Amino acid sequence: MTDIAARNALRIGAGHLLVVIMENAYPINVMHGLKAVAEITHIYCATSNPLKVIVLREEGGASILGVIDGLSPAGVESEADRKERRDFLRKIGYKK
Hints:
Layout: H1 2-12, H2 31-35, E1 51-58, E2 61-69, H3 79-91
Antiparallel strand pairs: 1-2
C-alpha cells in the first residue's frame, strides 16, 4: 500500500500532499482521525470509487484543484435505496 501511495503522490506531483491507500477498510472510518491531524488542512475525498485528480502545473510547482470522484449519478435515490444505504452505514460503524 505504501508503494502505491508513493507512486500516486509522484504522479500527482503537488507539494504538501498526503495520499492514503487502504485495503479491506472503509475510507469513511478513518476520516475523524485524519481531520484531527493539525497539518492536514483539506481532504479532497475518501472513496473506493475510481477518481481523477485535477492538477494545475506551473513553472514553480503544481497544485491540486480538485478531484473527480466516481461516476455520474444513475438516478435518484428511492426510499428502499435510502434504507439500504443507512443500514450499510450502521453496519460499518459510521452511523448509529
